[in-house]
Amino acid sequence: MTRPPSAAQRRVIEGADPVTGRLRGTQAQLAALVKRGLAFRHPRPPHEHFLTPAGHRMRQAEPAEPARRPVPDAGVFAARVGGAEEPPVDAAARLREAHSAWQGLLELRRMTNPDGAVDRPCGWERAHLVRAAALALEAAGHRPADGETDGYRVRATPQPDAVAVYMPDPEGLAACTATLERAGWQAGAYTEPRTRVRYVLASPRRV
Question: Is the Cα torsion angle 68, 71, 73, 77 positive or negative in sign?
């Protein structure tokens, strides 16, 4: 378990700008939040500190939430990729968390893409393709497959820069395609030769 932030650190998180996630605090507090994966220091002057997606998520959570659950491995919201292993969740609360994480990811794009663009994926997304695509889908309201309902499934592919998205419903698959394209991905529909299963192949757009 990751030790939860101190009360002072929690106040810094709660005091973040609601739109940009910009933080104000002592250097020790900010450095501690960076170490926990809840904030990052912008590389360009004046080197302001901003919430990561996990920091945005913690700011939206109930006060007791950080004490019950560890921060995900990279300090980033763990989007549901779809599959029978997915545990039941409160749909409304989960959608709020996904939306908050998506807003944090847009800020991460703005701060880390060389031109500050938010309409195409950033380096973190290119390094975590499955999770990034799943977050774009989940934050837009698409439901992942959970063993009881048919929803999307995001899976890695042999291609190093692409993921496959599966969904039994053709209209739902088309809606996933549109969502990924709006989120800055290149997406196209394909059919597996042997099984005839339709799927979407998606990769982060570079320009």
Answer: positive
